[in-house]
Amino acid sequence: MAAAAQNDETALRSAIVAAARQMSASGLSPGRSGNVSCRFGSGILITPSAMSYEEMTPNDIVRIDRAGHAADLGQTPSSEWRFHVAALDAQPEARAVVHTHSLHATALACTRRSIPAFHYMVAIAGGNEIPLVPYALFGTGALADAVGKGLADCRACLLANHGVVAVGASPGEALELAHEVETLAHQYAIACQFGAPVILSDEEMRDVHTRFATYGKDTTQNGDAKH
Prior knowledge:
6 helices; disordered C terminus; globular
């Protein structure tokens, strides 16, 4: 392996471990639940199955091809590797996937509800809702197919009776989106206790997406910020 590729793989392995540990420490995925992956070459790097995040090291991250075959003997890849591949296929610009069992988002998914546009920040995932994908047994091709369809038009989705999947340009970015989804799920659950939340219209959400496209960017020609 060329030195540049080897350095890149080492950095990605470390980023995956860091995101996995943060995911666990923040409570997004209690115990050994959840998993993290990143594109690498024609395959992916993914957290191993049933291993404590606190004990995990970069060397424990498993490199697999698209069929789930590990490049080296050692740890077994997460049983959810299929939907990680499907998620990255659905979002070609994404490089990383985070899967959590966060409290409020998972509780909402267990009621078979998506997160509608009750708050403009729903647009952070790229669509007008954070969709719910149908239930399928974990680790199966059926679940991978559902995730692929659920992420066709947005960067996060809820898995019925299961949890959350979010993608991003890096493991850290995907984790940040998973945090946003959990916050939105918590807010939506609280709002529902006061009655039916008011849902923003498609036109209102279109305005949000337009604003998000330039948010934080200098859109002036001379570099002077507009207020």
